[in-house]
Amino acid sequence: MSILNVEHLTHGFGDRAIFNDVSFRLLKGEHIGLVGANGEGKSTFMNIVTGKLMPDEGKVEWAKNVRVGYLDQHSTLTKGMTIESVLKSAFAWLFELEENMNQICDRLGEAEPDEMDAMMEELGVIQDTLTMHDFYIIDAKVEEVARALGLLDLGLSHDVTDLSGGQRMKVLLAKLLLEKPDILLLDEPTNYLDAEHIAWLKRYLQEYENAFILISHDIPFLNDVVNIIYHMENQRLDRYVGDYDKFQEVYEVKKSQLEAAYRKQQQEISELKDFVARNKARVATRNMAMSRQKKLDKNGCHRACCGASEAGI
After folding, report:
1. Which end of the chain is more exposed for a tag (fewer CB within 10 A), N or C?
2. Which helix (H) or strand (E) holds 62?
3. How far apart are CA 33 and CA 254, in angstroms?
4. What is the DSSP string of 99-136?
5. Which residues pair with 89 in a beta bridge?
6. What CA–CA distance (Å, rounded) separates 45 from 34?
7. C-alpha–C-alpha distance, residues 30 and 1, integer Å
8. What is the pLDDT of residue 274?
9. In this structure, are strands 211-215 and 183-187 parallel, antiparallel, or unpaired?
């Protein structure tokens, strides 16, 4: 089932085009690595699919009732909040359900018999939801993730605004993982993690049953956790099945084929030009030469330009 569909996306900044008629889809359970050189538009793409940036053209469609979690390098935290309160805010919707449940319980004593059945049924649904999402072991889950990312050493009562930039990113990552959304959008999550924390995050993502899109320059990490690569280059977005090493292997073959095709086009153009130059003055072959000159004028330059663009030259 498709969770996210992006169709005919075109976007740029001023005179600089970033995407040109790009399409993308994310299926349930896919672990995607979004790769490309700096400046090709990876973070811009994330901002567009999360609605922070409107594209010039195209359509972005999420499946209904999908919960999206985005690790944004530019997120801020509110002064006065502790590490523990930020992490527990990942379960805010469950705390709201608990409050609703308590209110229903308070009203039960005054309810009419015909109302009581409906209220008891609603209580049962809420209770099942809280149990299913581990509401009654939230403290243990918070402690587990905090320990795994080195936050326990800082103290869960620590004010988040007193933390360094790297420590804040750890807090935001921990909150995001505790939310366990239907799709994770991760932009360089290993930037502020040491080897032990990266190893834990790798295991977590390998076992993550939901989908995620990951931007990372850490190639070994990418290889360990993704099964699909989307490559951004020359305003295009191309899909490759497999890890990063597999993508590199297929990409190099594709690039070599494009370069060979370009060289062949250049050779053909060179031969046509040479024939025209040698035969324009000869009466017997002048008509043939002029015909080839027209071919050059009509197709040669266009093919050369296309070939250069496709080969990345």
Report:
1. N
2. strand 57-62
3. 19
4. HHHHHHHHHHTT--HHHHHHHHHHHHHHHHHHHHTTGG
5. none
6. 10
7. 10
8. 77
9. parallel
Q: Which residue has the tokens 């290889």?
A: 223
Question: In this structure, are residues 152 and 197 in contact, taking their beta carbons and an 8 Å threshold?
Answer: no
List of long-range contacts for 90-93, beta carbons under 8 Å, 24+ apart: 90/175, 90/176, 90/178, 90/179, 91/133, 91/135, 91/138, 91/178, 91/179
Task: Quickly tell me which residue has 């799709």 as its tokens.
Answer: 183
For the chain, what is the radius of gyration of the CA atoms? 28
Tell me 2's DSSP state.
Answer: E
Structure tokens that stand for 148 in this block: 């795994």
The pair of structure tokens assigned to 1 is: 């089932």
Beta bridge partners of 9: 22
For residues 98 and 139, what is the distance between their CA atoms, to the nearest angstrom?
15
pLDDT score recorded for residue 284: 53
For residue 5, the 8-state DSSP code is E
Residues 6+ apart with CB under 8 A from 255: 311, 312
Q: Tell me the CA distances in angstroms from 50 to 55, 82, 158, 182, 201, one per residue in order.
A: 11, 27, 30, 14, 23
Tell me the three state secondary structure of residue 230.
strand
Residues of the chain with pLDDT under 50: 304-313
19-55: per-residue pLDDT in tens?
Answer: 999 999 999 889 999 999 888 889 899 999 998 899 9
CA distances from 19 to 2, 51, 88 (A): 22, 16, 38
By CB atoms closer than 10 A (0-12, 13-18, 19+), residue 26 is buried
User: How many Cα atoms occupy the beta-carbon half-sphere of 259 within 13 Å?
Assistant: 8
Measuring CA to CA, which residue among 292, 309, 305, 215 is closest to residue 258? 309
> pLDDT at position 111, please?
79
